[in-house]
Amino acid sequence: MMQEFKDFVSRGNVLDLAVGVIIGAAFGKIVTSLTQSVIMPVIGWLMGGKSFTNHFILLGTIPDTYKGSPTDYAALKEAGVAMIGYGDFITQCVDFLFLAWIIFLIVKAANKMNPPKEAEAAPAGPSEVDLLKEIRDELKKKA
Q1: Cα 25 from Cα 118, distance rounded (Å)
Q2: What are phi and psi for residue 83, nearest 5 degrees?
Q3: What is the pLDDT of residues 28-73, one digit of tens each?
Q4: What is the pLDDT of residue 119?
Q5: Over the chain, what is the mean pLDDT?
Q6: For 2-34, how does the pLDDT look when each residue is reduced to its tens digit (9 = 90+)?
Q7: What is the C-alpha to C-alpha distance for residues 136 and 139, in angstroms, rounded to an integer?
Q8: CA 70 → CA 7, 49, 63, 81, 91, distances in Å?
Q9: Are residues 52 and 41 in contact, defined by beta-carbon separation less than 8 angstroms?
Q10: Structural domain boundaries in the chain
Q11: Residue 22 burial by CB count (10 A; 0-12/13-18/19+): exposed, middle or buried?
């Protein structure tokens, strides 16, 4: 059983998958940082705020024990205040779309560099018309 496991792990496609997952996770962190540190602050600035993540709708009351800013989404969330954080949600959506677009471009470039191998042509056989003629001739012989 141990040898089967070693054979399984040492296959090229399993190792390729492991490398792909690790690189993908690291790449995801880079894209998340780009989205949250560069793209979304610009969008937030255009929307009139300093941080797009701080756009939210308060659903409940702020507890009396809360001493932070009533506009600090992260602090209010930590305090357990009920709210809809649509700014954070939009940030995550933009992050996903940006990551998906970049992956699309990478796959497209990889496909362009490695065109699919042409399938070996199957040996040409008789056409349908030829087969039908053979069947007709055989039926005439029997009749």
Answers
A1: 33
A2: -160, 160
A3: 888 888 888 888 788 777 877 666 777 889 998 888 888 888 888 8
A4: 56
A5: 82
A6: 888 777 766 667 777 777 888 888 888 888 888
A7: 5
A8: 58, 15, 11, 10, 21
A9: yes
A10: 2-117
A11: exposed
Task: Copy the structure tokens of residue 73.
Answer: 């989404």
Residue 67: how many other CB atoms lie within 10 Å: 8
Return the structure tokens found at 76.
């209010």
Residue-level pLDDT at 133: 92
| Share of the chain residues as helix, strand and coil, in percent rounded to the nearest 5 | 65, 5, 30
Distance, C-alpha 100 to centroid of its chain: 5
Q: What is the 3-state secondary structure (H, E, C) of 98-112?
A: HHHHHHHHHHHHHHH
Cα 55 → chain centroid = 26
What gap in Å lies between CA 73 and CA 58, rounded to an integer? Answer: 10
2-117 has which fold? Answer: 1.10.1200
Lowest mean pLDDT among 37-41, 102-106, 118-122: 118-122
The letter for the amino acid at 61 is T
Tokens of residue 22, six digits: 């690790």
